[in-house]
Amino acid sequence: MRIGHGFDVHAFGGINPLILGGVKIKFKHGLIAHSDGDVVLHALIDALLGAAAMGDIGTVFPDNNINFKGVNSFYLLSEVWKLISLNYVIGNIDITIILQTPKINPYLKQMCTNISKNLDCKKNKINIKVTTTEKLGFVGREEGIACEAVALLLNKK
Predict the structure, then answer these.
(1) pLDDT (tens digit, 9 = 90+) per residue, 41-68?
(2) What is the structure's pLDDT at 6?
(3) Which of 97, 73, 111, 77 is nearest to 146 (CA)?
(4) Phi and psi of 93, rounded to 5°?
């Protein structure tokens, strides 16, 4: 049994749509990023890599590599999971999305479905919740979004 923690943050801006957990969110801003800026999947990737002692997203998929420019974060997650799933299965995943705006509760079930399909695990092993910073800091000023993820991996053998 191994546990990992992941964190990601991106500022609002740019021309890309806002994508969280693989869901396109209707909002006036996207997130500035080298990839598609999906903070949910980036935090999850870091949690999975941490649990497997395989480094972090920036080491595995460096932002100075043009091959990852604008890449769909589910591609990154699937590449990481191909390696990790050789030895582990998902115990559970807990994700906290930290944002002041937009309101995203209606999208959480679809995010959960997207992640469970990509990781080939049951939806009841994934929890996604949302909180604000009570208008404090860059998130409270509506300048961006942060996300934390915790992943528990169980040995296959």
Answers:
(1) 999 999 999 999 999 988 888 777 777 6
(2) 98
(3) 97
(4) -130, 135
Q: pLDDT tens, 29-40?
A: 999 887 888 999
pTM over 0.85: yes
Could you tell me the residue ranges of all domains in the chain?
A: 2-155
Task: Please enumerate in sequence order all residues whose Cβ is within 8 A of that of 109, keeping only pairs 6 or more positions apart, or say none.
Answer: none
DSSP character at residue 143 = S
Residue type, position 147, single letter: C
Which SS3 state, helix, strand or coil, does residue 149 take?
Answer: strand
Annotated binding site: 8-10, 34-35, 42, 56-58, 61-65, 131-134, 138, 141
- Name the binding residues for a divalent metal cation: 8, 10, 42
The architecture in CATH of the region 2-155 reads 2-Layer Sandwich (3.30)
**Per residue in 4-42, is it b (16+ CB within 10 Å) or e — as a string?**
bebbbbbebeeeeebbbbbbebebebbbebbbbbbbbbb
With 0-12 / 13-18 / 19 or more C-beta atoms within 10 angstroms meaning exposed / middle / buried, residue 147 is buried
H helices within the chain, ranges in order? Answer: 39-51, 57-60, 73-84, 108-119, 137-140
